[in-house]
Amino acid sequence: MHAEMIPQGMTVSMKNPRNLVQGKWEWAILVVAVLLRFVLLDIKPPHFDEGINGWFCEQMTAKGFYAYDPENYHGPLHFYVLWNFLAIGGRSLWAMRLPVVLVGIVAVWLALRFDRFFGKASCRWAALLLAVSPAVVFYNRYSIHETWQQVFLMLFAWGAMGLWRFGTRGYLWALGMALTGLILTKETYVIHVFCFLLAGLGAWIWHAALPASHIRRSAWRVTMEDLWAVGAVGMVTVVFFYSGTFLNWSLLEGLSTTFDHWVQTGSAEQGGHQKPGSYWLDLIARYEGPMALGLVCAVFAFLPRFPGLLRWLAIYACGALAAYSIVPYKTPWCIISILWPFAFCFGYFLTKLPPFVGPALGGLMIFQTLTETISLNFFRFTDERHPYVYVQTFPGIEKMTHPLLTLALQNPENYHLRGLVLTSSYFPLPWVLGDFDNIGWWGKRRPKSYEADFLLVNTKDEKVVERHLTDDYFKEPLKIRDSQEASIAYFRASYFDVMFPGREPDFVAPEEVP
């Protein structure tokens, strides 16, 4: 720790036994976070969005850069990181999910670094809660953007608090790079930045009426040169990624036009992702008990002598929750960008309870949360009845992919088998089967010829398709996900008989009448 970051009067002794014990607690929390995110990481099939993200990375390989689409509402950073991991690790779920897993662990570590503002005990509870939260763990095990947004929001708050409290250059860089990361991640950064600023104004006004505690600030020790340096690095980084690494400058227009598309989508009353205003509160109350307690604590941040920086964070958290509740378009993974401040409120509340009461209550709530997390992430990860399991691919997709991938591993020539996919929604198959170079992704359109070694069709089209088949096929019923119609996979018997030993073809082509 740099000397300039240590509050006055605070001494640090690495040889102090108490410090060693505290360090062991932090390591234990990080170990829990690592285990919950790494164990059986590939147990669930690739999500619809993971298939989309993997497909985008393959387009990057073809084009040489990520062609940012303002209608996609997601910045380019995740795709560039993911492209590198897939280039090293190949077409695997571990390579796909590893970047987000690592970022999720960083978020838990970063929660511990707020101890200079909220105290060690509060932050250890907050970090432990983030380590075991059902939503946080579930979406930290997905290759999607929201975990990046969570960690950049935390870094933004950490930098802003440090700049207020200590006024040093390091916090300015943290704040600037966090804002850069938010811009590079998702267009909803405008909601959060606005809520942070509004919370600052609200906390200042409220402090005049009911003063907060621990509100002292230090004189800024940053210069205009520091501000220009941070701004320049952030701006060049944003331009670098949004311009396709300087290869397509026209893409920069999307930085502003994305908000037109976003407003239209977010306010629309159609599209399948519209939820009631109480959606987030319902999820928190049902699955995130400690976070719900933190939310209640945040509501009472107006009380006198409430810690000033925590008051600011609590006002921001309630504002972000309200803003996300107003927008009709809601997807459950956004909850991790909303939850994290309530973890600090939860930790603060526990430290204000009588001795032994706080640890007992906290331990009980954490244990209950951990059981929910284990159930969701290792047993119910494809249970469409759980609200967090959203547009999730079912294990039944392996009825389609396993025979193909197995044959291709036995003989790479099988990557050239001809396939037809005649379903309207088929992701993540284009990424999973991306090495097969002769698949027609027809969707609702119909090909001129149905001659293929394997097919995927909607069950309702079964009879229509079979009238065009001229060979024997094995048939496997499957459903890719809850929102998709039931499908049937067809495998030409002459190629796939080894995959169905002792089984007669389910479809036998009629003999031609001479």
Fill in the keyword field for this structure.
five-stranded mixed β-sheet; 514 residues; 56% helix; mainly alpha; elongated
How is this structure best summarized?
By secondary structure, the protein is mostly helical. It is built from 21 helices and five strands.
Explain what this protein looks like in three dimensions.
- There is one protein chain.
- This protein is mainly alpha-helical and 514 residues long.
- It has two domains: 16-378, no CATH class; 395-499.
- The chain is built from 21 helices and five strands.
- Strands 2-1-3-5-4 form a five-stranded mixed β-sheet.
- Strand 1, helix 19 (429-432) and strand 2 (439-441) form a beta-alpha-beta unit.
- Helix 2 packs across helix 3 (77-89).
- The chain is elongated and about 90 Å long.
- The N and C termini lie far apart (88 Å).
SSE layout and pairings?
Blueprint: H1 17-38, H2 48-63, H3 77-89, H4 93-112, H5 115-118, H6 120-132, H7 134-140, H8 146-165, H9 169-183, H10 189-209, H11 224-242, H12 254-267, H13 279-287, H14 289-299, H15 308-326, H16 335-351, H17 357-378, H18 398-410, E1 419-422, H19 429-432, E2 439-441, E3 454-458, H20 462-466, E4 473-478, E5 487-492, H21 493-496
Parallel strand pairs: 1-2, 1-3
Antiparallel strand pairs: 3-5, 4-5
